[in-house]
Amino acid sequence: MIRLENIHKRFGELEVLKGIDCEVQQGEVVCLIGASGSGKSTLLRCVNGLETYEEGRLTIDGNLVDARSKDVRSLRTSVTMVFQRFNLFPHRTALENVTEGPIHVKGMARSEAIEMGHELLARMGLDAKAHTYPDSLSGGQQQRVAIARALAMQPRAILFDEPTSALDPELVGEVLEAMRGLADEGMTMLVVTHEMGFAREVSDRVLFMDQGRIVENGSAEQVLTNPQHERTQDFLRRVLER
Q1: According to the model, what pLDDT value does residue 61 have?
Q2: Residue 95 CA from chain centroid, whole number
């Protein structure tokens, strides 16, 4: 469903992605792991058309992804993104955050969007918070609203950029549980995460990135339990010792 072929991305003289090749099949959950600065978030932003890439070819369902294309807005309705810092509209309630995209981007009738918004918030365990503003929600609740907002666009796939890294430890579990539910339902997911337990339990495959390259690509069991590359072994040793 998502295919990256020899993707290169630079910021000035700094080459952040150095020839990325990978695929994500429909219904697959793929976790991206690696140290900060290895290029994981930049890769996601290229997939969603938030960043341009200088070389290579990136397609979704065979359609070329190009941040400069007039079709990029349509792309973002089929492949949505959940950010590290929630990115909710502070002046809108939880329900309004969820219904904004369907109404103003997809042209859905307001009554239909509101009904769907309540259903999605209920699915996230938050319908009682439908009329609450983000600053009155916990970090975990805000991130679950962000997931409901992503689902409201009825996407083919969801990209998650370290969705729990801004949360207090006791709030991480509720967000991961919501993501497990999506995986169980067959949602295609590409997830940047430092949660090795989640990656081991939920992902079909794990990609380890280092300095702009995919160093290791395999099943969660293979990469997390029996990594072949020395750099992967060193990274996991340090992460698991924390």
Answers
A1: 87
A2: 21
